[in-house]
From TrEMBL:
Name of the protein this chain belongs to: Sulfotransferase
Residue span, Sulfotransferase domain: 57-315
EC class: transferase
Key words, A-Z: Transferase
Listed transmembrane segments: none
Pfam families per UniProt: Sulfotransfer_1 (PF00685)
Source organism of the structure: Eutrema salsugineum (Saltwater cress)
GO molecular function: sulfotransferase activity
KW Transferase (keyword) present: yes
Length: 318
């Protein structure tokens, strides 16, 4: 479990002792590494990933901030790139892997795997390899940047992301969060002091990378995906260069990966991931603007002010 730190190498311990640390929202202790706050476990995963991961030109890396649509994109990308191997059409989808396997088990989480299963052999993944990470652009393994592999980055409206994290945190770390006031969590969020924070640096690094190198980094938003899923799938398919895709096929992928469909599957309602997280924790509401039932006007304004300030001049509106 990425919030527990019981299997650290000496290298990680040495590094950790030199890093700024804070007691955080969601975790008892977190460490600032290259600008972002991490648990010890994730930090170790990131270090190992930086050191050992060798990207291939054909790789596809999905990057997100936590609670920004990772599960959905994992499903969409998996369905898209494997559509010849696993046809998605309604008639033949009876044995599609997404019907019986949670998306997180179909798409390995780089730094999570490097922490939990250091012997995992990435070279055995079928080509094109599809993997995901929360690592910031500047901290990506060198080979990811130097190879021709493709990066799909998805971000989400920060108020919805905060609220999603707030509820997820309560499920994931009930003891840490039980008495944690939401005002304090919003403050931590706006100061960037929470796991994987600050979100704005993460988003902006990939935003600028996508503008500088649009063939390398594709920037998508949860909101666009929600409003025009089919159009976004087509855009992703073009970016990945994975052949022409018919309208019906796109519709089938939209349907297969929709919140309504995936969240009702047995495997996503009843399953548990090897790290102990229940699969249902990844499916809550799946809406745009759902923050309204959790955030007061003044807390929402606090996040808005932060977003306005941090994103001003970037050309990005969230
Ligand atoms: P909410 O908590 O707002 O419902 P991540 O996958 O990055 O952890 O993000 C989880 C968020 O994505 C949750 O948001 C979850 O409900 C939503 N989500 C999961 N699967 C989805 C899907 N197929 N379509 C749309 N949203 C989805």
């Amino acid at each position: 479990d990425y919030l527990r730190d019981d299997d650290l190498t000496q290298e990680t311990r040495d590094l950790i002792s030199s890093l700024p640390s804070e007691k955080g929202w969601l975790v008892s202790q977190m460490y600032q590494f290259k600008g972002f706050w991490q648990t010890q476990a994730l930090l170790q995963g990131i270090l190992k990933c930086q050191k050992h991961f060798e990207a291939k030109d054909s790789d596809i890396i999905l990057v997100t901030n936590p609670k920004s649509g990772t599960t959905w994109l994992k499903a969409l990308l998996f369905a898209l790139i494997n559509r010849h191997k696993f046809p998605v059409s309604s008639s033949s989808s009876g044995d599609h892997p997404l019907l019986v396997t949670n998306p997180h088990l179909l798409v390995p989480f780089l730094e999570g795997v490097y922490y939990e299963s250091p012997d995992f052999n990435f070279s055995e993944l079928p080509s094109p390899r599809l993997m995901n990470t929360h690592i910031s652009y500047l901290s990506l393994p060198e080979s990811v940047k130097s190879s021709s592999c493709k990066i799909v980055y998805c971000c989400r409206n920060p108020k919805d992301m905060f609220v999603s994290l707030w509820h997820f945190g309560k499920k994931l770390a009930p003891e840490e969060t039980a008495d944690y006031p939401i005002e304090k969590a919003v403050k931590a969020f706006c100061e960037g002091k929470f796991i994987a924070g600050p979100f704005w640096d993460h988003v902006l690094e990939y935003w600028y990378a996508s503008r500088e190198n649009p063939n390398k980094v594709l920037f998508v938003t949860y909101e666009d995906l929600k409003k025009q899923t089919g159009k976004e799938i087509t855009r992703i398919a073009e970016f990945l260069g994975c052949g022409s895709i018919g309208e019906e096929e796109v519709k089938d992928i939209v349907r297969l990966c929709s919140f309504e469909h995936l969240s009702k599957l047995e495997v996503n309602k009843e399953g548990t991931l090897p790290n102990g997280i229940e699969t249902k924790a990844f499916f809550r509401k799946g809406e745009i603007g759902g923050w309204r039932d959790t955030l007061s006007e003044s807390l929402a304004e606090e996040i808005d002010r932060t977003i306005d300030e941090k994103f001003r001049g970037s050309g990005l509106e969230l």
